[in-house]
Design goal:
Blueprint lengths: L6 H16 L12 H16 L3 H15 L7 H12 L1 H12 L7 H4 L7 E2 L5 E5 L4 H6 L6 H12 L8 E4 L13 H18 L3 E5 H9 L5 H4 L3 E4 L16 E6 L2 H6 L4 H14 L16
Parallel strand pairs: 2-3, 2-4, 4-6
Antiparallel strand pairs: 1-3, 5-6
Helix pairs in contact: 1-3, 2-3, 5-9
Bound molecules: uracil.
The site of uracil has 12 residues, from helix 8.
């Protein structure tokens, strides 16, 4: 699909594409997707590319291909940075928090009380990603501390682990007014920091809670019923200038229902528990004995 440019033009245009990425413009990325969604994503990328200048269009495709290639490797200098990050993940997360600063990159900065960065064990095997802070989180500066958070805690303990064992973050770090869903540009702007958090934590499995997290992380648009119940290969799209940028990192992602949705429709707890058991099996975690053989209650 991608035509190859000569080396100098390719580098010039690749630098431009990376520059836009570093500004948080992610829409031109192609991410690994389930087979059923690949055609739609390619169509979207081709549409975006067709609206760009021809040389850029070719390079967008080539850079995206390079970024998602299974053979992509960090340069020696990047490999050194990554080794340092893995050696001290809490420090690397502090750098991301400092980069966010008193963030006013989108309108949510004006109305928040506290920016909600993320919490938990940076060395975890499991990371949960929600949508954005609600009123309780906005007041306390910690994700999932309200009613939905209580249910998330129960879901985590049903897995035989504790909240402190996992890492929890949101797509957007500031509360959307009246708890509305975050807008697409808010997700794109703030989501680059989530991508960096993922690239530092390097969980073996990401659990995307609800449609906002699932759609943002997978760059997909489908119903929750279709998205859940399977593993996706996931590569966090980290700005190339960020120290965590590592084209070789891949992990697994699972989509399940958001705890706030489960509070409204508890019938879906059964499906959610199946998703969590899938994660546990993948990680070789023992199913709690009382749950083995029936669907359990999240
Ligand atoms: N809902 C979310 O998506 N995130 C939170 O932190 C709290 C509620």
């Amino acid at each position: 699909m991608a035509k190859v440019l000569d080396e100098a033009s390719r580098k010039r245009v690749a630098d431009a594409v990376r520059y836009y990425r570093d500004l948080g413009i992610y829409d031109l990325y192609r991410r690994e997707t389930p087979a059923g969604m690949l055609d739609a994503l390619i169509a979207r990328q081709e549409l975006a590319a067709s609206q760009a200048a021809p040389a850029v269009a070719e390079t967008i495709a080539a850079v995206a291909e390079e970024e998602t290639s299974m053979d992509a490797q960090p340069s020696a200098a990047d490999a050194e940075k990554i080794a340092a990050i893995l050696n001290d993940k809490p420090a690397a997360l502090r750098v991301i928090r400092e980069d966010l600063g008193d963030c006013q990159r989108c309108g949510l900065g004006a109305t928040r009380t506290k920016l909600v960065f993320g919490v938990g064990n940076p060395g975890t095997r499991i990371m949960f990603v929600g949508e954005g802070p609600g009123a309780d989180e906005d007041a306390q500066g910690e994700p999932f501390v309200g009613r939905a958070g209580q249910l998330l805690n129960n879901m985590i303990s049903a897995m035989g682990i504790r909240r402190e064992d996992v890492y929890i973050a949101n797509v957007v770090k500031c509360r959307p007014p009246q708890n509305r869903a975050p807008e697409r540009d808010e997700c794109n702007t703030c989501g680059q920091f989530l991508m960096r958090q993922i690239a530092v934590v390097r969980p073996e499995v990401i659990v995307a809670l609800g449609a906002t997290a699932a759609k943002f992380l997978l760059a997909a648009s489908d119903s929750m019923a279709n998205l859940r119940g399977r593993f996706y290969d996931f590569h966090p799209m980290v700005p190339s200038a960020a120290p965590e940028h590592d084209p070789s990192f891949r992990t697994k992602l699972v989509v399940t229902y958001h705890p706030a949705y489960l509070l409204r429709d508890p019938r879906q707890k059964k499906e959610t528990w199946l998703d969590l058991q899938m994660v546990m099996k993948h990680l070789g975690m023992a199913l709690p004995k009382r749950e083995a053989g029936h669907s359990g209650e999240a």
